[in-house]
Design goal:
Layout (H helix, E strand, L loop, with lengths): L1 E5 L15 H12 L5 E4 L3 H4 L8 H16 L3 E7 L2 E2 L2 E2 L17 H18 L5 E8 L17 H18 L6 E3 L3 H4 L7 H6 L4 E5 L5 H5 L4 H14 L10 E6 L11 H12 L5 E6 L30 H11 L10 E5 L14 H11 L4 E5 L6 H7 L3 E3 L1 H4 L8
Parallel strand pairs: 1-2, 1-10, 2-3, 3-6, 6-7, 8-9, 9-10, 11-12, 11-13
Antiparallel strand pairs: 4-5
Protein name: Glycosyl hydrolase
GO molecular function, one term: hydrolase activity
Keywords: Hydrolase
Amino acid sequence: MRFGVNYTPSEGWFHHWLDFDLDSVRADLDALAALGLDHIRVFPLWPYFQPNRALIRPRAIDQLVALADAAAERGLDVNVDGLQGHVSSFDFLPAWTRTWHRRNLFTDRDVSDGQAAYLRTLAAALADRPNFIGMTVGNEVNQFAADPHPDPDRITAEDAGRWLTLMLAACAEGAPGRIHQHASYDAAWYQDDQPFTPGHSARLGDLTAVHSWVFNGTAQRHGADSVPVEHHAAYLVELSKAWADTAHRPVWLQEVGAPAPLVPAGRAAAFAEATIGNVLDCPDLWGVTWWCSYDVSRDLADFPELEYSLGLLTGDRRPKDIAAALAEAARQPYATPTVRGTALVVPADPARRSRCAPGGTVFDAYFRLVADGVRPTTVLDVRADDKEHLAVRGITEVVTPDQVLPTPQGGR
C-alpha cells in the first residue's frame, strides 16, 4: 500500500519552475519524508516546459530530473503528470494551441505529435531512475473536452480513446516497464455527455486513477460528517470496478482532499481518518495520494478560496493536524481487505452515468447500503447475469437500486 502526496511547492506554487530553487525543494521534501510518506506526484507546467511545439526546454527537463533525484535521496518515489493542463482552477496551455494558433487538443495531428514528443521526452529523462513510478498523461485533461469548461475542445468518445491510446504509448516508449496511466476528474464517472468515459478510465493504462472531491454536490447535499462524504473516495474506487475488464485491476486514489468550508478546518483531520480508513477497505487499492503538500500562499491572487488551505503543511512547512492523520495511516500495518460480495447494478450506457452522480439513484442506493452495514461494490447491468464474471470477482449477491431505495411517494 502506497501513501503519498501531490507536491505543491511551499514557495511559488507550480510557478516555482520559473525560479527553480533546489534547496527550497529539498527542504520541502524533507518535511514530507518526515511524515513517513513514500511518494510524490509532480506537476511540470506544460507551457513552461514546451513553449513551442518544436522546443522542449532542456533546462526544464534537467530541473525535473534534479527534483526526482532529490526525492530519491529522501526515500520518495515520483510520479510525473505531463500535460498541465488544468490545476486548481487555472488552465496552462501553450500558445501554440490557442487563439491565433487554435487547434483541437485531442484531434489535431500536429498537436498530438507535439504532446506525444513531450510525454516521451519526460518519461525518457527519468527512465533510468529507480524511484520513477511512471507518467500520468495529464491532470484532469477531460475538463478541456466538454461543459462546464468555458471554451471546450469538442470531441467524441472515440476521439478521446484514440488520443489516450496515443499518449499512453508515448509514455511507454519513453520509459518501458513503468506504470503509465491517465487521470480524469469525476465528470468521467458522473456526466452523461463527457467524452472521456468510465471505460477509458478503467481499461486504458496500467491502473485506474480516481480523484475524489466532495465539493461536487456530495458535501452540499449530505453534510461534512455524513456517510456519503466519508465514503465518497471508496465509492469511486468501487464504482470504477464495474467497467474494468480485469477482476483485480489496481485502483489509485490519486487525489483526495478536505475542501473548506464544506469540510471545516476543525474537522479536516477526522475527514482524512475516515476517508482513508474507508478506502483501505477496498480490495485492489494501489495507494492514496493526498491533495496536497503545502498551502497556497495568500500572496498569490485569484485562486478559489478553498485552494489556499488544502495543504498538509503550512507555507512555512509546519504540519497541520491533517498531516498527522495521514502520517498515522502510513505507519499502520496494512491488512488486505476481504472481497466485497454484494454488487450494485450500474448502467453500462455512458449516457446514463448521471445516475451514479450525487442525487442519482445508483449513488443514493450505494450509500443506503453502506449506512445499513453492507460493503458494496458495483457491476454493469450487462454483466449482472454473467455467472463467470461474478464468480471471478467474488460477487455472490446482485442488487438493483430499486431494490435498495424506498418507492417514491405515489408509487412512481
